[in-house]
Amino acid sequence: MRGRSDEVQKKRLVTALVSAAVVLCFLYVYQGSIFGSQSSGATALEYGSKSLRKLGWGGDEDADDISSKFSLDDADDGIMVKSFPVCDDRHSELIPCLDRHLIYQLRLKLDLSLMEHYERHCPPPERRYNCLIPPPHGYKVPIKWPKSRDEVWKANIPHTHLAHEKSDQNWMVVKGEKIVFPGGGTHFHYGAGKYIAAMANMLNFSNNVINDEGRLRTVLDVGCGVASFGGYLLSSDVITMSLAPNDVHQNQIQFALERGIPAYLGVLGTKRLPYPSRSFELAHCSRCRIDWLQRDGILLLELDRVLRPGGYFAYSSPEAYAQDEEDLRIWREMSALVKRMCWKIAAKKNQTVIWVKPLNNDCYLQRRAGTQPPLCRSDADPDAVLGVNMEACITPYSDHDHKAGGGELAPWPARLTSPPPRLADFGYSNDMFEKDTDMWGRRVENYWNLLSPKIQSDTIRNVMDMKAHLGSFAAALKDKDVWVMNVVPEDGPNTLKVVYDRGLIGAAHNWCEAFSTYPRTYDLLHAWNIISDIERKSCSPEDLLLEMDRILRPTGFIIFRDKQSVVDYVKKYMSALHWEAVGTSDSSSDSDQDGDEVVFIVQKKLWLSSRNSRDEE
């Protein structure tokens, strides 16, 4: 009896162990294939943290010797990252720092009247989604530019509510598998092209061309909708930063970028826009539904900060022409405000008024004592932007700019290669600028030689330079049909104003945080020493790689230019991120004086996901 009892107990023990193993395997598979909770996110984060600690990436550790921290041998360290979990399908459009669910979960006390809920609020490390963002069901490689200006695949942005809501304004129309953009807007139902020509005519520009023979190059369009205004300006050699929040029209910026039109998620709320002073020749608001009179005109004063001397503000809104009592009141108060700001009416016709900003400080100095809004403090930095609160004050010109009267910038396209006026703010000489331009010209030529087996002339449209410095990488792409978002990291020299002086656009950013854009919005990322730089800040390079994957389109490319040890580190994640190597070279191939840098180009594979599986194509 004892023998049979022992045998039964053994069988029960074996059965229990087998059952436990089956349950554990099921939980492992479930976690890897369906990433729908914070618990699985924590697991991914813990794994990444262990890997970084093995590499010597402790938060309190001295970061002087980057190479030693990236030099572990792949065969021996045992930390090759095999896979990342895939985020749940409902996160296919996740923007980590503009996530409304995060605001609710953290119970942030925000002032909705000041648009604080549309400003950036980034998740703490323990709440980050350390997983791969899946494309939506049926995702296709985007339509190529210039055809994409007028149509995109509906499957890529499966949201048609704007087509119904704005059906009388010709924003967009659903046609079968595509969404078509007729070029209309809230205030230009019959097309942005005619509206832009009418604006040029109001300003007496030659041949009704809005670029004013190259003198008008950079534009800020606030409340841009699906960015048809900016899209139609491109044919006039005018580049627009189309700006809108992730609001009730939440996919408008996503549509803009899918179309191949420059755009950025942002709002006029309480913080300064991420652009330096004197960046734009024209600001535009077409029925943007912004209360310009609130808080002593603080939002209009923010536009004043980013406008160049002699810059224009084109305002198309009922207040400019309507005769009802409320609109007349707003018009009177707004007219009084801009008069005290020394703006003058350049033109007013039908539904549009265009104001012009003064060229120098003369008008400011002639105002009566105590006039509101006041001038900003003399020690205030007008180019400090990230996390800086707006101020209800007028940004005066420096003595140099006052004397120049806005006449220093060359017209486009000479502006791109002429030494910018604000170059001297950084102690850079004209000779240094020209050498930088030449060096990046050689580098970009080498990049395209490496990319040539994989690309056609229309393969790449949306480009981001993650560390733009003087903008010479973007300048070297002038003959290609691309546009570049020039990102200047907040911890380096604030050279973004030089970028804008060259007739380019961009934004300041902290790469320890997610960028303000939708997933799958860029065809090419240029990462020059960006991994090395972020490690010095004790931020996670793994998080940055996941962020780069988030904003990169399937079949898109990343150009890493960094130390060999950093490239080796990136290679550890290639399989997990579904990237494949395209080409590599050392800096000698582009006659570079910085001989310890290596060029490594990867391509993101197109993979599709459902709630229960992930299939590669």
Q: What is the topological layout?
A:
Elements: H1 2-33, H2 38-54, H3 66-69, H4 74-77, H5 100-106, E1 151-153, H6 161-165, E2 173-175, E3 178-180, H7 192-202, E4 218-222, H8 228-233, E5 239-244, H9 252-258, E6 263-265, E7 280-286, H10 294-306, E8 307-316, H11 325-340, E9 344-349, E10 352-356, H12 362-366, H13 399-404, H14 414-417, H15 430-451, E11 462-465, H16 472-475, E12 483-489, H17 496-501, E13 505-509, E14 522-528, H18 530-536, H19 541-551, E15 552-563, H20 564-571, H21 574-577, E16 579-586, E17 597-604, E18 607-609, E19 614-616
Parallel strand pairs: 4-5, 4-7, 5-6, 7-8, 11-12, 11-14, 12-13, 14-15
Antiparallel strand pairs: 1-3, 2-3, 8-10, 9-10, 15-17, 16-17, 18-19
Task: Give the overall shape.
Answer: globular
Beta-strand proportion: 15-25%
Structural class: alpha/beta
Rg (CA only): 27 Å
* DSSP strand count: 19
Distance between the termini: 61 Å
How many distinct helices? 21
User: The CATH topology of the domain at 191-404, please?
Assistant: Rossmann fold
Q: Please identify the top-level CATH class of the domain at 191-404.
A: Alpha Beta
**Arithmetic mean pLDDT:** 86
Indicate the CATH architecture of the domain at 191-404. 3-Layer(aba) Sandwich
Query: Helical proportion?
Result: 25-40%
The CATH homologous superfamily of the domain at 191-404 is called Vaccinia Virus protein VP39
* Strand order in space, largest sheet: 6-5-4-7-8-10-9
Low-confidence stretches: 1-6, 27-64, 71-76, 612-617
Biggest pleated-sheet summary: 7 strands, mixed
Keywords: Glycoprotein, Membrane, Methyltransferase, Signal-anchor, Transferase, Transmembrane, Transmembrane helix
GO biological process, one term: methylation
Subcellular location: Golgi apparatus membrane; Membrane
Enzyme class: transferase
